[in-house]
Amino acid sequence: MRLFGYAVRALAIGLFGPLALGVLSTSSMIWTASAADETCCKEGDTTPPTELVANVPKGQLHNPYKDIAAVAEEGHKQFLRPGCNECHGGTGGGGICPPLTQGAWFWGNTDDVLFRLITLGSADLEKQGYKRLGYGSVHAPMPPMGMTIKTSDDLWKIIAWIRSINPPGSNPPDKVLPQE
């Protein structure tokens, strides 16, 4: 029900511009950083990734799984479903796309950036103001996978697995932050 309220707010802002914020500010539908902390990124969240990206401000997406080893196996199972392993290889070692095992982060490696990159793909991530930080041997774009991955929880588990296969010390979540 809460996400319905956020969708109404987004629609109102889209139709009526920033003035809609004044009307909605007294409502329980207003989205703030504190609301993001209260509702975003909980274990077991069934919200579709595209919905979470649309409703949570930049920088506010954080993986609820602190113990990545505990959910890495489940994340790998999600990764093996159609979409990820065909390009990145079943073990994340690469294929027609960059390997996920080398600690290279072309868009940054915060939870927020990874979640948005996988959900939106690189073209839409760039449209939102994110800058590509580098290129590996593959210059192809990342396709949007947000419609393929059913829940935010599934995507957080995939991200946990990706972090589990990187070399030690190469993937602290605060290593690279996108410039605004």
Structural overview:
- This protein has 180 residues and is an all-alpha fold.
- The chain has 8 helices and no strands.
- It folds into 2 domains: 2-30; 68-164, Cytochrome Bc1 Complex, Chain D, domain 2 (Orthogonal Bundle), CATH 1.10.760.
- It has helices at residues 2-16, 19-24, 33-39, 49-55, 68-79, 85-88, 111-127, 152-164.
- Helix 5 crosses helix 8.
- The two termini are 32 Å apart.
- The model is unreliable at 1-37 (pLDDT under 50).
Write the layout of secondary structure elements.
Layout: H1 2-16, H2 19-24, H3 33-39, H4 49-55, H5 68-79, H6 85-88, H7 111-127, H8 152-164
Helix pairs in contact: 5-8
Quick rundown:
The chain is an all-alpha fold. It is built from eight helices and no strands.
The number of domains is 2
User: CATH H-level name of the largest domain... which superfamily?
Assistant: Cytochrome c-like domain
Could you name the CATH class of the largest domain?
Answer: Mainly Alpha
**Shape verdict:** globular
List the main descriptive attributes of the protein structure presented here.
about 180 residues; disordered N terminus; Cytochrome Bc1 Complex, Chain D, domain 2; globular; mainly alpha
